Amino acid sequence: SDHQLAYPSSPKEMVWANHFPKYFPSAIAADGDAETKPSGKQVEVADIGCGFGGLIVSLAQKLPDTLMLGMEIRTQVTEYVEERIKALRIQHEAEGHYQNISVLRANTMKFLPNIYEKFQLSKIFICFPDPHFKARKHKARIVSPTLCAEYAYVLRPGGIVYTITDVEDLHKWMAKHFDDHPLFDRLAEEDLKDDVCVEVMRTDTEEGKKVERNNGSKFVACWKRREDPEW
Ligand code: SAM
């Protein structure tokens, strides 16, 4: 359950220094208060329902200059990813690796625009979301008309939504919702063949590995966010 979760009232309230101290170093101001220096960088990649963090851990060194945030609703799973990243940072302290990834406990179905500014993100990943098979549970799916509008709000024009699932019915559901939304254009396989992120979704997510072991299918679909229409 998520009712004890606190959300910032606006993205300006997000304290990114706790997540990315290398990029948002704190300084002690003259009055003795800790002050966070602004960083040129901001989080650009969100992994919705990141689970155990396989995707962001794998992307950390493939996109070393990009700040990436895993978002996960389960407390213990979030804590596991926090510990995983902390250990990787210590292990690779000399090279300064893994400073660009972090995790946030959040219900991504709520308040996404309180966390990210409009157009802040360049990539959103939705990897192996919970299928919620029964029709009466479909409202719990993390793709819906309302949520597509929120993804379009936080994603910049030209940004990409990546989805993967082993459940064909859910793949069709996600495809229908993004296809129907006026701000998303489906990408062709050809457009994605050199995109390292697609391979990472397939092979480096914990669910992707599980599906591989069980010889399951993996359905990938991605959309590019359009420019806002001119009024
Ligand atoms: N993406 C990971 C992967 O591919 O290995 C994990 C997939 S797992 C099947 C789905 C994850 O989404 C679970 O860890 C679950 O707790 C999380 N989740 C479900 N609903 C969520 C929500 N509303 N907000 C954040 N995380 C959520």
UniProtKB/TrEMBL annotation:
Presence of the UniProt keyword S-adenosyl-L-methionine in the record: yes
Keywords of the record: Methyltransferase, Nucleus, RNA-binding, S-adenosyl-L-methionine, Transferase, tRNA processing, tRNA-binding
Signal sequence, renumbered to the chain: none
Subunit structure: Forms a complex with TRM82.
Protein's name in the database: tRNA (guanine-N(7)-)-methyltransferase
Localization of this protein: Nucleus
Residue numbers binding S-adenosyl-L-methionine: 49, 72-73, 107-108, 127, 205-207
Enzyme Commission designation: 2.1.1.33
GO CC annotation: nucleus; tRNA (m7G46) methyltransferase complex
UniProt lineage: Eukaryota, Fungi, Dikarya, Ascomycota, Pezizomycotina
Catalytic reaction equation(s): guanosine(46) in tRNA + S-adenosyl-L-methionine = N(7)-methylguanosine(46) in tRNA + S-adenosyl-L-homocysteine
Major location (coarse): nucleus
UniProt GO molecular function: tRNA (guanine(46)-N7)-methyltransferase activity; tRNA binding
Pathway noted in the entry: tRNA modification; N(7)-methylguanine-tRNA biosynthesis
The keyword S-adenosyl-L-methionine is annotated on this UniProt entry: yes
Active site residues of this protein: 130
Biological source species: Morchella conica CCBAS932
Included range, full protein: 51 to 281 of 281
UniProt family annotation: Belongs to the class I-like SAM-binding methyltransferase superfamily. TrmB family.
Function: Catalyzes the formation of N(7)-methylguanine at position 46 (m7G46) in tRNA.
